[in-house]
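Hello,

I think I submitted the zinc ion job twice by accident. Can you confirm which output corresponds to this input? Input:
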Amino acid sequence: MKRTMALLLSGMFTCFLQSCYGQSSPAGQNEKKSTEYSHTDTEPVNKSNKDWQKVLAPEVYEVARLKGTERPFTSEYEHSKEVGTFYCAVCGNALFKSDAKYESGCGWPSFFEPISKKSIIEAADNSYGMQRTEVMCGRCKSHLGHLFNDGPPPTGLRYCINGVVLDFEKAKTAEKTYNNRKKSNSGS
Ligand SMILES: [Zn+2]
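Support: Only one job matched these inputs. Its output is below.
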C-alpha cells in the first residue's frame, strides 16, 4: 500500500515537472490560433495587441507583439535539419524555407534569406543603444527577430529569428521520399 502511494506521488511529481517545463513545446504553441491564421491567405492582418493577447500563447505574445527576445539556445528549431517551411506562428504567413536555414551558432534559428521580399518587413531599430534592423512578419507585422550582415553566401545576411514565433511544417514530398528510402533500405 505504501509502495502504491509512493509510486502515485512520484507520478504526480513528474506530471508537475512536465507541466512546468513543457511550456515551449510545439504542442503548447499550437493550442491557440487566431481566426486569421492561414498558410494561403495573404490579406494583411491588423489587430490590436489587446486582441492578440486573447488568442496568443503568452510566450508568443511577448516576442511577437512586445518585441521580446526568447532565451538563446532554447529553440528546438535552432539545430533542426528537417526539410519544410517555417511559418509565422501568429498569422501562418510563409516566412522561410529550410533550404535557407543554417547553423550560425548565435543561439537562435538563423536563415540567409526569406521566402520572398514580401514575406517579411525590415525596419530600423535603434533601441538599447544599438543600430539594428528589425525583422517583422510581412502579413501581421509581428516581431520576428533581427537582420545582420554576417551571414553566409549567397546573400551574406543572417536573419536571426526567435523560434517561438515560428511554426514548422515538414515538406510533404520530402517526407514521402525519406519514408520510401527508409522502406527500400530496410527491405534490402
Ligand atoms: Zn504573421
